[in-house]
Backbone:
């Protein structure tokens, strides 16, 4: 089965978008002191743009796209989903009480980061 992925250049574009969307509000917050309520809409927009950039990185092709890359993607997806489900169950049971990830954005962000970490570790062959 042929997987449908974005072109390889989207990985670099995604890195740039995610980095700029993360760094720009930090620099703007240092230059212009605003209250928490005034900065909330900008923070939500920046969070959304960070997720778009990370999704571009996740959905982009690798230089060599073969069965091994599909295997690495599958294992990384499995690990990320398992980590998210386990956290959700433990948080729902009251063990974490929202102390690690308190918002849906945080849960999605952590799953994407786990996916990227596991994918690149497996791709490099580190056990």
Residues:
């Amino acid at each position: 089965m042929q997987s449908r992925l974005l072109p390889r250049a989207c990985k670099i574009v995604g890195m740039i978008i995610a980095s700029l969307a993360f760094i720009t509000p930090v620099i703007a917050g240092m230059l212009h002191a605003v209250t928490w309520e005034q900065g909330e809409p900008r923070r939500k927009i920046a969070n959304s743009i960070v997720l778009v950039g990370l999704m571009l990185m996740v959905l982009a092709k690798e230089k060599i796209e073969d069965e091994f890359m599909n295997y690495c993607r599958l294992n990384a997806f499995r690990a990320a989903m398992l980590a998210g489900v386990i956290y959700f169950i433990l948080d729902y049971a009251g063990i974490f009480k929202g102390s690690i990830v308190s918002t849906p954005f945080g849960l999605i962000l952590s799953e994407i980061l786990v996916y990227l970490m596991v994918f690149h570790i497996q791709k490099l062959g580190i056990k």
Residues 37 and 73 are 39 Å apart (CA to CA). The two ends are 27 Å apart (CA to CA).
